[in-house]
Amino acid sequence: MIPVTNQQRRVTVQEDEVRATVSAVFAAERAGPPDVGVALVDDETIHALNREHLDHDWPTDVIAFDYGEDPAPDELRGEVVASAETAAREAAERGLCPRRELLLYVAHGTLHLLGWDDDTPDKRQRMNARAAAILDLISLGEEAP
Predict the structure, then answer these.
(1) Where residue 32 falls among pLDDT bands split at 50, 70, 90?
(2) Residue 74 counted as domain residue
Protein backbone atom coordinates (compact mmCIF):
# COMPACT_ATOMS: atom_id res chain seq x y z
CA MET A 1 0.00 0.00 0.00
CA ILE A 2 1.62 3.25 -1.20
CA PRO A 3 -0.82 6.16 -1.26
CA VAL A 4 0.63 9.21 -3.02
CA THR A 5 -0.61 12.77 -2.58
CA ASN A 6 0.79 15.28 -5.05
CA GLN A 7 0.14 18.79 -3.71
CA GLN A 8 2.69 20.59 -5.90
CA ARG A 9 3.07 21.74 -9.48
CA ARG A 10 6.82 22.47 -9.69
CA VAL A 11 8.10 19.05 -10.78
CA THR A 12 6.34 16.75 -13.20
CA VAL A 13 6.33 13.26 -11.75
CA GLN A 14 3.91 10.37 -12.09
CA GLU A 15 2.42 8.71 -9.03
CA ASP A 16 3.50 5.34 -10.45
CA GLU A 17 7.13 6.55 -10.43
CA VAL A 18 6.82 7.53 -6.78
CA ARG A 19 5.31 4.15 -5.93
CA ALA A 20 8.03 2.37 -7.93
CA THR A 21 10.69 4.27 -5.97
CA VAL A 22 9.24 3.27 -2.60
CA SER A 23 8.76 -0.33 -3.76
CA ALA A 24 12.34 -0.49 -5.02
CA VAL A 25 13.71 0.74 -1.69
CA PHE A 26 11.67 -1.84 0.21
CA ALA A 27 12.83 -4.58 -2.18
CA ALA A 28 16.48 -3.53 -2.03
CA GLU A 29 16.36 -3.46 1.76
CA ARG A 30 14.40 -6.76 1.92
CA ALA A 31 11.79 -5.00 4.04
CA GLY A 32 8.67 -6.84 2.96
CA PRO A 33 5.70 -5.23 1.27
CA PRO A 34 5.80 -1.42 1.20
CA ASP A 35 3.38 0.33 3.51
CA VAL A 36 4.38 3.97 3.25
CA GLY A 37 2.46 7.05 2.18
CA VAL A 38 4.14 9.81 0.19
CA ALA A 39 3.22 13.48 0.02
CA LEU A 40 4.84 15.78 -2.54
CA VAL A 41 4.60 19.36 -1.32
CA ASP A 42 5.99 22.88 -1.66
CA ASP A 43 8.53 24.62 0.58
CA GLU A 44 5.86 26.45 2.60
CA THR A 45 4.20 23.16 3.57
CA ILE A 46 7.40 21.31 4.45
CA HIS A 47 8.66 24.37 6.35
CA ALA A 48 5.54 24.30 8.53
CA LEU A 49 5.96 20.55 9.14
CA ASN A 50 9.66 20.97 9.93
CA ARG A 51 8.87 23.74 12.43
CA GLU A 52 5.97 21.87 14.05
CA HIS A 53 7.50 18.40 14.33
CA LEU A 54 11.26 18.94 14.39
CA ASP A 55 11.50 22.50 15.77
CA HIS A 56 13.54 23.60 12.71
CA ASP A 57 12.41 26.91 11.27
CA TRP A 58 13.31 26.38 7.62
CA PRO A 59 12.15 24.36 4.62
CA THR A 60 13.94 21.06 4.07
CA ASP A 61 14.13 18.47 1.32
CA VAL A 62 12.37 15.52 2.95
CA ILE A 63 10.87 14.48 6.27
CA ALA A 64 10.01 10.90 7.23
CA PHE A 65 7.36 10.19 9.85
CA ASP A 66 7.68 6.73 11.38
CA TYR A 67 4.37 5.36 12.69
CA GLY A 68 5.87 2.13 14.02
CA GLU A 69 7.39 -1.06 12.67
CA ASP A 70 4.35 -3.29 13.07
CA PRO A 71 1.30 -1.42 11.85
CA ALA A 72 -2.12 -2.97 12.05
CA PRO A 73 -3.54 -4.28 8.77
CA ASP A 74 -4.48 -1.46 6.39
CA GLU A 75 -2.32 1.03 8.32
CA LEU A 76 0.88 2.69 7.14
CA ARG A 77 4.32 2.21 8.65
CA GLY A 78 5.06 5.82 7.97
CA GLU A 79 4.95 8.74 5.61
CA VAL A 80 7.52 10.51 3.47
CA VAL A 81 6.97 14.20 2.78
CA ALA A 82 9.21 15.61 0.03
CA SER A 83 9.52 19.19 -1.19
CA ALA A 84 9.30 19.47 -4.97
CA GLU A 85 10.18 23.15 -4.70
CA THR A 86 13.47 22.32 -2.96
CA ALA A 87 14.12 19.56 -5.51
CA ALA A 88 13.60 21.99 -8.41
CA ARG A 89 15.87 24.61 -6.83
CA GLU A 90 18.64 22.16 -5.89
CA ALA A 91 18.52 20.47 -9.30
CA ALA A 92 18.77 23.82 -11.10
CA GLU A 93 21.76 24.88 -8.99
CA ARG A 94 23.62 21.65 -9.82
CA GLY A 95 22.42 21.17 -13.40
CA LEU A 96 20.46 18.02 -12.54
CA CYS A 97 17.03 16.69 -13.41
CA PRO A 98 14.41 17.96 -10.92
CA ARG A 99 12.32 14.81 -11.30
CA ARG A 100 15.25 12.60 -10.34
CA GLU A 101 16.10 14.91 -7.44
CA LEU A 102 12.55 14.62 -6.11
CA LEU A 103 12.58 10.83 -6.47
CA LEU A 104 15.92 10.78 -4.62
CA TYR A 105 14.20 12.60 -1.74
CA VAL A 106 11.46 9.97 -1.75
CA ALA A 107 14.05 7.16 -1.70
CA HIS A 108 16.02 8.93 1.04
CA GLY A 109 12.95 9.37 3.22
CA THR A 110 11.96 5.75 2.69
CA LEU A 111 15.44 4.63 3.76
CA HIS A 112 14.95 6.65 6.97
CA LEU A 113 11.78 4.69 7.67
CA LEU A 114 13.72 1.48 7.21
CA GLY A 115 16.34 2.41 9.78
CA TRP A 116 18.95 4.37 7.87
CA ASP A 117 20.45 7.42 9.59
CA ASP A 118 22.24 10.44 8.16
CA ASP A 119 23.37 12.13 11.36
CA THR A 120 27.02 12.28 10.27
CA PRO A 121 28.54 13.36 6.94
CA ASP A 122 29.73 9.79 6.28
CA LYS A 123 26.32 8.27 6.98
CA ARG A 124 24.62 10.92 4.84
CA GLN A 125 26.98 10.21 1.94
CA ARG A 126 26.34 6.45 2.20
CA MET A 127 22.59 6.99 2.43
CA ASN A 128 22.53 9.33 -0.57
CA ALA A 129 24.62 6.86 -2.57
CA ARG A 130 22.21 4.04 -1.65
CA ALA A 131 19.19 6.10 -2.73
CA ALA A 132 20.89 6.96 -6.05
CA ALA A 133 21.89 3.34 -6.65
CA ILE A 134 18.31 2.18 -6.10
CA LEU A 135 16.99 4.74 -8.59
CA ASP A 136 19.64 3.62 -11.06
CA LEU A 137 18.45 0.01 -10.68
CA ILE A 138 14.94 0.96 -11.75
CA SER A 139 16.05 3.61 -14.28
CA LEU A 140 13.89 6.42 -12.91
CA GLY A 141 14.58 10.11 -13.28
CA GLU A 142 17.18 9.82 -16.02
CA GLU A 143 16.16 12.56 -18.44
CA ALA A 144 18.15 15.78 -18.82
CA PRO A 145 17.52 18.83 -16.61
Answers:
(1) confident
(2) yes
